[in-house]
């Protein structure tokens, strides 16, 4: 998938998540039963995890692919950056 298409897909996915979160807010205001709210929270959480996974995959494909031809030090720095990003993603997921 080309970069522009992937960007549009991610933005669309984030807009859907934004709508889900607003829906959860309305459910809380209307005092919908907790199990129904938690189902929606789980769906929004799963959707955000998918966005994060897509971002990590894109980073690996694009950034690491471009860095392959660079000196080892540059590749090492890129890998450290990727490790930090993945650690943050996993720790907060």
Can you walk me through this structure?
By secondary structure, the protein is mostly helical. The protein has helices at residues 3-29, 34-67, 72-92. Helix 1 (3-29) runs antiparallel to helix 2. It starts with a helix and ends with a helix.
Task: Outline the fold blueprint.
Blueprint: H1 3-29, H2 34-67, H3 72-92
Helix pairs in contact: 1-2, 2-3
Features:
Methane Monooxygenase Hydroxylase, Chain G, domain 1, 93 residues, mainly alpha
**CATH class category:** Mainly Alpha
Shape: elongated
Helix content: over 70%
First and last CA, distance: 26 Å
Quick gist of this model?
By secondary structure, the protein is an all-alpha fold. Helix content is 88%, strand content 0%.
